[in-house]
Design a protein that fits this description.
This protein has 138 residues and is an alpha+beta fold. It contains 1 helix and 8 strands.
Length: 138
């Protein structure tokens, strides 16, 4: 397996997320060059294999496939979890699906930023109301 400068294994395939809703992740897999078919895929989380993603050919697009998999409920828990979609043959990571859940998020930077945004929004509304109260009616 060859590595790229970013540390990822090189692959002729690209997988882009198109939707993630209701625990179902969907993406479009494309081949950068003419391919004989889609690669076999693996879904891995913390070194554990999960059910293989479903790969379906896209009509009219010989080098494109739709990829779908459900996030296993048994794999969900407190903290950060990352699911990897890899090329089973080369080990190349085609997609990363990070999930954050539970009370451990209180220390997570993204949760802190969301809290700060909410507090700033409250302050903005209070300031605007105070300024409106101070302005004379025309």
């Amino acid at each position: 397996m060859t590595e790229t400068a970013s540390g990822a294994a090189s692959t002729p395939f690209e997988l882009v997320k198109t939707r993630f809703q209701g625990g179902l992740w969907e993406g479009r897999l494309t081949a950068r060059a003419q391919a004989a078919g889609a690669p076999a895929l693996r879904l891995i989380q913390d070194g554990t294999d999960h059910p293989v993603p479903r790969v379906t050919a896209v009509a009219g697009a010989p080098n494109a496939w739709d990829v779908r998999f459900a996030i296993p409920v048994s794999a969900l828990g407190e903290g950060v979890s990352v699911f990897l979609v890899t090329d089973a043959e080369t080990g190349a990571v085609l997609a990363r699906v990070p999930l954050l859940a539970g009370e451990d998020l209180a220390d997570d930077l993204r949760a802190e930023v969301a809290l700060l945004r909410a507090e700033l929004d409250q302050l903005r509304r209070a300031f605007q109301a105070a300024m409106r109260a101070r302005l004379p009616d025309d």
